[in-house]
Amino acid sequence: MKKSTKCVMAATGIASVIVITKLTKKGIEKTSESVNRLKYRLLVKDKLQDNQNLLAIVDDLDDDELKTMVNVFERLETEPTDRHIESYLKSKIDAIKSYNK
């Protein structure tokens, strides 16, 4: 095989790898964006009783804003509520009372 043919094949291979890498990154970004939009919609429906105003803005948010909103809603999901804190404190007080008896 001629040297020029080898160079062309190598250049074609390198270009192919670069194109595939860029397409894969774009695909991953698009998929994560779609997943975040779906998460947002599901969290609004679940946590905020299907608030139509919040559902309407999902298409207007950019990726960073959407990630922030999803993180906020997920934090609402995991943060302890007053009822959790109250029951925890009551159990600790009961434990201390029973220990002192």
> Which sequence of SSEs, written as H and E, runs from N to C?
HHHH
Q: What is the quaternary state of this protein?
A: single chain
Helix content: over 70%
Structural class: mainly alpha
Largest sheet, strands/sense/barrel: none
Low-confidence stretches: none
How many DSSP helices? 4
Report, as a whole number of angstroms, the end-to-end distance.
94 Å
Over all CA atoms, what is the radius of gyration? 27 Å
Which properties best describe this structure?
101 residues; mainly alpha; 4 helices
Structural description of this entry:
With 101 residues, the chain is an all-alpha fold. Helices cover 84% and strands 0% of the residues. The chain contains four helices and no strands. Helix 1 (3-47) packs across helix 3. The longest helix has 45 residues, at 3-47. The model has no long low-confidence stretch (mean pLDDT 77).
What's the structural blueprint in terms of helices and strands?
Elements: H1 3-47, H2 52-56, H3 63-78, H4 82-100
